[in-house]
Amino acid sequence: MAKYNKFERKTPQARYKIDPVWTGIGCLMILIVPIMSWAASVEIIKLARAQNWSIMASLSGYARLPDIFYNLPVIDIGANYISSIPDFYALALFFTIILLLLSGILSFAYAMIYRVIGPPRYTSLDAPAPRIKTKRYTR
Question: I want to staple 122 with a disulfide (CB 3.0 to 4.6 A). Which of 16, 35, 65, 126 is the partner?
Fold first, then answer.
């Protein structure tokens, strides 16, 4: 015990609990965003084929992985599956780009909505803002 301080037993305060709706929205975002980006990348590849985009010439065809992937016992299943997907390189490229853009946009919108609806910025556990009035120093 300190010499000049009094001992006070502090009661634990209840923490802010996240609303289950926000948890459900986050779970849906984890599931829906990759599905939407995969579908959008498939549609972009169809459009690129119809329009004869020059990027499709270098990204079209079946993927061919190094031979070591086809010789390993368990990995050969995945390598054979990847090699059976037409335009895999284009699909992977467009999927990654759309996934990053879509998740960024939805996360920004989610953060803005959470900022408006969510808990207050400062709680009772935060220290109050200092109220200091300073005077101009003159010598």
Answer: 126
